[in-house]
Design a protein that fits this description.
By secondary structure, the chain is mostly helical. Helix content is about 65%, strand content about 0%. InterPro entries: MazG-like_dom, MazG-related_YpjD, YpjD/YvdC.
Amino acid sequence: MSTTQELANIKLIKEESREDMDKTIKEMQKEVDEYIGQFKEGYFSPLAMMARLTEELGELAREINHYYGEKPKKATEEERTIAEELGDLQFVIVCLANSLNIDLQASHEQVMEKFNTRDKDRWTRKEEE
């Protein structure tokens, strides 16, 4: 799939799920928790989820390598998109956070504070017009 096709797929996904795109991190965590709560097994152990996270990250790396790297897909390989792989990765991250009672919104705020203080002068800022 070409980069143009990849962008078209991302645009289609965005158009199809416009309402879902406005969810807060808390809403996403709640939605995943409600989904997992339907099953007796519940969340996997943190170690199992770490393995799953690694697996999903590998799948994302593979897709990026196919589209932007030197390794084209084999004709027999299933069509996947970078957006789909990022979604899989995000789902597992939310599952891991939920299982450990971590508020990802609070984690995000903490990380942004760190970048806005510690790393505020690390990169060259764009000129104001």
